[in-house]
Amino acid sequence: MGGTTMLTLALSDIATLGTQVAMHGAIRASEIAGDEIFEMMVAIVIIVYDTAA
User: Fold this and answer.
1) What is the structure's pLDDT at 48?
2) Which pLDDT score, from 0 to 100, does residue 15 have?
3) From CA 12, how far away is CA 18, in angstroms rounded?
4) pLDDT for 1-53, tens place per residue?
5) Which residues fall within 8 angstroms of residue 17, CB to CB, at 6 or more apart?
6) Whole-angstrom Cα distance, residue 47 to residue 52?
7) Cα-flanking dihedrals φ and ψ of residue 8, to 5°?
8) pLDDT given for residue 9 in this prediction
9) Residue 11 to residues 14, 15, 47: CA-CA distances in angstroms?
10) Phi/psi at 10 (nearest 5 deg)?
C-alpha cells in the first residue's frame, strides 16, 4: 500500500479524451435544453387552457 503509481498518457490519448468529454457535454446540454423546451411548451399550454376556461 505504500507504493506510488504514476499515471501516464500519450499526447494522442489526451486529445481523444478531450474530444470524448466535449461530445458527452454537448449531448448532455442538448438533452437538458430539450427537456426545458418541452416543459416550457407544457406550461404555455396550461396557461392558455386556464385562460380560456
Assistant:
1) 87
2) 66
3) 10
4) 556 666 676 666 666 767 777 788 788 877 777 778 888 888 989 888 888 86
5) 9
6) 9
7) -120, 140
8) 61
9) 5, 7, 54
10) -75, 155
